[in-house]
Amino acid sequence: xxxxxxxxxxxxxxxxxxxxxxxxxxxxxxxxxxxxxxxxxxxxxxxxxxxxxxxxxxxxxxxxxxxxxxxxxxxxxxxxxxxxxxxxxxxxxxxxxxxxxxxxxxxxxxxxxxxxxxxxxxxxxxxxxxxxxxxxxxxxxxxxxxxxxxxxx
Amino acid sequence: xxxxxxxxxxxxxxxxxxxxxxxxxxxxxxxxxxxxxxxxxxxxxxxxxxxxxxxxxxxxxxxxxxxxxxxxxxxxxxxxxxxxxxxxxxxxxxxxxxxxxxxxxxxxxxxxxxxxxxxxxxxxxxxxxxxxxxxxxxxxxxxxxxxxxxxxxxxxxxxxxxxxxxxxxxxxxxxxxxxxxxxxxxxxxxxxxxxxxxxxxxxxxxxxxxxxxxxxxxxxxxxxxxxxxxxxxxxxxxxxxxxxxxxxxxxxxxxxxxxxxxxxxxxxxxxxxxxxxxxxxxxxxxxxxxxxxxxxxxxxxxxxxxxxxxxxxxxxxxxxxxxxxxxxxxxxxxxxxxxxxxxxxxxxxxxxxxxxxxxxxxxxxxxxxxxxxxxxxxxxxxxxxxxxxxxxxxxxxxxxxxxxxxxxxxxxxxxxxxxxxxxxxxxxxxxxxxxxxxxxxxxxxxxxxxxxxxxxxxxxxxxxxxxxxxxxxxxxxxxxxxxxxxxxxxxxxxxxxxxxxxxxxxxxxxxxxxxxxxxxxxxxxxxxxxxxxxxxxxxxxxxxxxxxxxxxxxxxxxxxxxxxxxxxxxxxxxxxxxxxxxxxxxxxxxxxxxxxxxxxxxxxxxxxxxxxxxxxxxxxxxxxxxxxxxxxxxxxxxxxxxxxxxxxxxxxxxxxxxxxxxxxxxxxxxxxxxxxxxxxxxxxxxxxxxxxxxxxxxxxxxxxxxxxxxxxxxxxxxxxxxxxxxxxxxxxxxxxxxxxxxxxxxxxxxxxxxxxxxxxxxxxxxxxxxxxxxxxxxxxxxxxxxxxxxxxxxxxxxxxxxxxxxxxxxxxxxxxxxxxxxxxxxxxxxxxxxxxxxxxxxxxxxxxxxxxxxxxxxxxxxxxxxxxxxxxxxxxx
Lengths: 153, 877
Fold this sequence. Notes:
Chain A is of the alpha/beta class. Chain A is built from six helices and five strands; from the N terminus they run αβαβαβαβαβα. Chain A has one domain (about 10-145): Rossmann fold (3-Layer(aba) Sandwich).
């Protein structure tokens, strides 16, 4: 599906996106589509690589497959939310059971996309997540101004 | 996040209560702004999730009409989308009103687990044997040996008719095969990766899966069981090697509403040395492109179909064919139809040759009422080594009837017995070997169509000029029009446009995937007993076969009308033919996928919580996802509406509206409500960016207020009396609330707490281009007059609001009006109405005792509003 004609919002253009998926074909495809829309998307193929990237790069929204080798999506999600609570995570999965998606959302995932991925739907969620990440940032700044930084969300 | 938000809210509320007057310091205002943004955001998200839930529910309802095919992955995705979005609504509701509706989670969990159980259901096999001899098979073993072999078992064992010996490799064996070395998991993965692009990648996915199966090893237990069964068969044939007919007998194949006709592979005359190769071929044929497409269109899950394999001793037939115990094209015709040709019945079934037709009446003598004998130039026979071969029939034999009268009657008689036994019309495959013995190879339920077109009424001569052809046979009745699309190569399949008329040279099963997408099918060759005809009938797609000039009669893209009932094709669209519609088929109804969706939908679709005013409107009473959705939607609007109500802020933290003169209206900017940063204590109208506030204001100032209505004596007495009781009602008293109005705004959002005169009203609006998020709430309370008159005014306002599309209700002395999900322009007009009413209903309670006055004001107010709506008002304060 080509979504190049969709005009992304300001929040989306400003947001730094990170895609974590071991299926490189899907990564490349999505990366091409988002870049064609003028969005900034980095990619990692496993959780470890994602955490390394997060440590050095400014990331607002993570799009992540739940099934990955070594560390699975839920564990990775928990680690991300522990260290970078203001980052929003959208999970992708082909699990037949919705339960895993709900578990993900309980663990702090922003939203959950069922495979097969409808790119439009995903973009819609990224849009929302980007807006949310902006509010998170703002809230973090307000707290820091008041010297309450470090208490976390 | 949630906790912080809760804390913030709590802090804010505590502060409000502790301080005497309404005041917030700058930090508190910042917090309020952030709280607003977070709540506002959650609310918008909640509404989006609400819309998605309702959309998915609508999709489910549409699917349940049964007209359109859908797959198991549709069921999974639709139910999953509803679940995820309902869950998301619950989470956002918790952000808006922390801890208040926690019972929703329990309701959700219990509904979700019921749906999960349904979707995960897997049938347990009742018999774990890997191979079962045909002698031991009856029709109640469908789940073990597949419908085709279970039926044949009955014909052999219960009806005692002649059926070749053999055995069936069972569903348990198929399960073992697919579960060895993770084969099934890999198949599932390939389907999942293909996802919604499956249609486009059908050939690729199919070939990947078939390769997997063909290269897998046959597990040893299956191997050993087959060898043992074959040895027994050999003994029955005097110890000689036996050639086998190896046939698919899949679940769902040959059931009443779906025949899977010709979708799977069968191999004839197989030498046992090559048996396992062909066995795997048949297992793999479950994933042929046409079988996958058919499966999706008919609503089967991959796991619903176990591929059982029937192995019968090959009958070296001199003639063969098919008996229909009734006319498949016309329910009223109860004659027996026998299609027959020289050689193996395969030629009839594959639809690649003309065959003889014998029609037998259902009378005692089994009278042959019609005979059509054709030149059967080709026949299919067993090859010496193995396999079959298509060969020319010698010219003299070709023109002879392929059955004797005796054989015709014998077949008809047996067919009636089988029909009697199954108590439904049957489609029976048979073969006659050289000594004249008739063997039955298959019996399955016959698909029958409704009556055909009333030709006399249609006066067809008037369309004679447009007639393209009137030869051929009605392979599937009906009339349809569409543009010609000729298909001769497999690659043409990819280009086939939805709703086109499929034109082919030969009615091959290969074209089956196109049938569901075609308006009609025309083929140069093929008969109505063939696979493609079967498929066309199942999908209710009209088809004419035997149209010898089909490929040349019209160009690609030309519009034609195909009337299979008349066996005619016309150029253009022939309305009277098309208007004669037969009842639509619902191919999905009754399929396993359909049943599954129907069961799951019972936990999703019904709405039990209807009345928000009812005592039962509680989270713990939500028994479907629709209930939860309805509950949350209702409560979220109420919660959002309360947002503005509890906040008061000092004049320092807000700006005073300067509209010609400084006014008693204060404005707090929550986010992007001002066009730019505003310095000083005043804000002017041109500084305001809030779309809903501007609309409200436009209505507020549209028509000047005439001042208080002349009141009757009773009204005056009341107001004087009540003023002495309640100092807050007296203008100029100590109360800061008298005649003071507070807006909280952002670009698309606005709340208003307003006290004008003696009544109190609140308004909250969200208006943007996203109609689904738009809402408008208005509450009106109080008045200086006695209860009756105040109530009178509430009813007066209610009537006006309802007239302009609001939903309004009165509880005690509260009026509550609401409007949701309408387009921006509509919302803005309603905001103008509220602005107008806020000013012009001042002190109207005073005249509520006087009918003439009430009438006068009703007319004046609605006239004014109509004027405002058409934009003819004069602007004034």
